[in-house]
Amino acid sequence: MKQKSNNIKEQWNFIFKVFPLVDLPFNILAIYSSNNWLITLVLALIIPIVASSILYFSEKKNFQPGYLILFINGLLFFPYMYYSGTQSPTWLTLINMTVGSFFMFNNYKVGQFFMSFLSIVTGVFFYWMGSSIEYAVMIAFINLGFIILFNRAYLYMQLQQSKIEEKNKEIASKSKDITDSINYAKRIQHAVLPQEESIYKNLSSSFIFYKPKDIVSGDFFWYYEINKDEFIFVCADCTGHGVPGAFMTVIGSSLLNQTVIDNKVNKPSTILFELDRQINFTLKQQENSVLTVQDGMDLTLIKVNKLTRELIIASAKRPVILVRDKKIQEFKGSKFSLGGMLTGTKVFEETIINYKAGDYLYMFTDGYVDQFGGQSEKKFSSKRLRDLLLEINNNPITKQKEVLVDSLKNWQGSLEQVDDILVIGIGF
């Protein structure tokens, strides 16, 4: 039933958008050369009114209007020709009706047969009105020729439409396969990432706001407990997002496992140096390498000693924000990324802080601050984020995450998310 309704709407749109382009020149010519221009004008107006009325009621009652339109208009067509006379080319209106007949039947062959019959009858009718046999035959053959021409064009369009539909089905099938693969890759990526529940269990006053732009993310976090008093927390932003970025997150997590867990490297600056070296090696980023991949990552790493209340920060191009006593301290970090083409010696310095109760530390990738939105559709900006973190600092940690999520949602509005988002907050 729904398909029929859609067909009727298509016919409705067709008759009001296309038919006037054909009707107007033919009818103006017919009325101009008519024996009785007033009756011809009236009938020329009645024919489309009848068609549109039938279409209107067919849409309301959900029935196929083709037979009814061509039957009634076919009867009106003969007085239209009769009052116009043999010198008026009213038979050209058959071309209009021919076009419509292909669209107003579920089976276009019915319309083709109907119009072929009407073309022959029209030729006979003109002969009956007094035109020459040659003129009558010409009318019939011109209309039959147009029907054959339009029939071939219509079949060609149907063939092309069929090919397009097949391609669309093929594309949809491949798109589903790709989406299914990426969804499975998401499961693998989540398996590689630390379990948030385990982190919250050991760091009750913390939150992780993690929102990939696509199904998988180019941002990742990493957590490791060195012992009961010490832990390492990483917030990283890999080159790109989606599948390429996700590959880099797996590489980054794997290299962190290898460096920190397997090789027992716990000094933050040394971890960053080692990660940089391993990324260069893994992605063949040596100079003059044919297979060079320029990808890398920006990363913040903190090492916390709960016993001595010591916080060590080592960062590759990502800032860290510490809120203490309603004041913000921002630590910029190194100007170097991890990985990428070797361009000389990189320096990753350590910042050592003695934290105290009530301090809050925030690490984040650039997705949050780069999100477009607001009335002017501008970036959220680092300043706005700093102000927001200072504003929410007195709230419980879970409430802080809620405010960050809601603020971004309200800022973004209906705009597309531009990048992966990761914000990590830790309360001491």
Q: How would you summarize this macromolecular structure in one to three sentences?
A:
This protein has 428 residues and is α+β, with helices and mostly antiparallel strands. Helix content is 55%, strand content 17%.
Task: Explain how this protein is built.
The chain is α+β, with helices and mostly antiparallel strands. The chain folds into two domains: 2-167, no CATH class; 193-427, 4-Layer Sandwich (Phosphatase 2c, domain 1). It is 55% helix and 17% strand. The chain contains twelve helices and 13 strands. The strands form three sheets. Strands 2, 3, 4, 5, 8 and 9 form a six-stranded antiparallel beta sheet that branches. It has a five-stranded antiparallel beta sheet with strand order 1-13-10-6-7, sandwiched between helices. It starts with a helix and ends with a strand. The relative contact order is 0.07.
Helix coverage percent: 55-70%
Q: Oligomerization state of this entry?
A: single chain
Largest sheet entry = 6 strands, antiparallel
Q: Any low-confidence stretches, pLDDT <50, length ≥5?
A: 1-5
Distance between the termini: 64 Å
